[in-house]
């Protein structure tokens, strides 16, 4: 009972922090961020980072709750058939979860391309989705161990289950890779590179001008002679 109260208290605290950080419309649960109404780039960056951190904490908590729920269901299964039923139901749930994460990832990519989301909010949402894939991977690992531990009589089913788990793991890895913040560039650095390129172009033009000036001087010297 005490554990349940502590868990509810943690969830309530996370919700309060999200509201305090972003206001009623600052962030969408599950890490899908909307535009924050802030007046300066620094405020936008700080708000996105704080809301992103809270979003990741909430997703991490959800991952833990789902993992514990799966383990509890497997412990309650008293027969191999009951265990297989739990595994089947969990794989269906994981498939649906991956569908949702893929859809969120696609919407996020579109919003980023069209400029509908701030760069810092975009990075925070990516990190949140990747955190969600970590939870999926944990549950897949539990199912793998469960399938391996089934008695020989259930081997006819375990082969197809292992293949299905491989497919889910591949999808999970793909989503995690496409939402890795390490693969996202910095807008400010890109702008600096463009400025540097312009400077280089101007430098080349100056060199050409110097060459022309020297040529004119040489011609002038020959005329005097």
Which descriptors would you attach to this protein?
disordered C terminus, mainly alpha, two-stranded antiparallel sheet, 225 residues
Outline the structure in words.
By secondary structure, this protein is an all-alpha fold. It has one domain. Helices cover 81% and strands 2% of the residues. The protein contains six helices and two strands. It has helices spanning 2-22, 41-76, 80-113, 119-148, 155-178, 187-224; strands at residues 27-28, 32-33. It has a two-stranded antiparallel ribbon. A hairpin with a 3-residue loop joins strand 1 and strand 2. Helix 2 (41-76) runs parallel beside helix 4 (119-148), helix 3 runs antiparallel to helix 4 and helix 3 (80-113) packs parallel to helix 5 (155-178). The chain is elongated, with a radius of gyration of 28 Å. The N and C termini lie far apart (106 Å). Residues 16-44, 188-205 and 220-225 have low confidence and may be disordered.
Shape: elongated
Task: Report the count of strand segments.
Answer: 2
Structure annotation, total helices: 6
Largest sheet, spatial ordering of strands: 1-2
Low-confidence stretches: 16-44, 188-205, 220-225
Report how far apart the termini are.
106 Å
Report strand %: under 5%
Structural class based on helices, strands and sheet pairing = mainly alpha
Q: Considering DSSP H and I runs of 4 or more, what fraction of the residues is helical?
A: over 70%
Please state the average pLDDT score: 74
Total number of domains:
1
Element order: H for helix, E for strand: HEEHHHHH
Instruction: Tell me about the largest β-sheet.
Output: 2 strands, antiparallel
Biased composition (Acidic residues): 179-225
Region (Disordered): 172-225
């Amino acid at each position: 009972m005490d554990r349940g109260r502590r868990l509810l208290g943690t969830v309530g605290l996370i919700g309060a922090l999200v509201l305090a950080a972003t206001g009623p419309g600052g962030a969408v649960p599950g890490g899908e961020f909307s535009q924050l109404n802030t007046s300066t780039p620094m405020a936008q960056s700080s708000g996105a980072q704080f809301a992103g951190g809270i979003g990741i904490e909430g997703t991490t908590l959800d991952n833990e709750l789902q993992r514990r729920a799966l383990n509890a269901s497997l412990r309650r299964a008293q027969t191999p058939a009951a265990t297989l039923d739990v595994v089947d139901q969990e794989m269906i749930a994981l498939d649906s979860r991956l569908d949702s994460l893929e859809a969120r990832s696609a919407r996020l990519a579109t919003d980023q391309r069209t400029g509908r989301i701030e760069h810092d909010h975009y990075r925070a949402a990516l990190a949140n989705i990747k955190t969600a894939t970590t939870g999926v991977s944990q549950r897949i690992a539990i199912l793998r161990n469960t399938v391996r531990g089934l008695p020989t009589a259930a081997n006819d089913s375990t082969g197809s289950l292992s293949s299905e788990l491989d497919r889910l793991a591949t999808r999970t890895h793909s989503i995690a890779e496409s939402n890795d913040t390490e693969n996202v560039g910095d807008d400010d650095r890109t702008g600096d590179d463009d400025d540097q390129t312009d400077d280089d172009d101007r430098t080349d033009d100056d060199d050409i001008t110097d060459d022309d000036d020297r040529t004119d001087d040489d011609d002038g010297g020959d005329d005097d002679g």
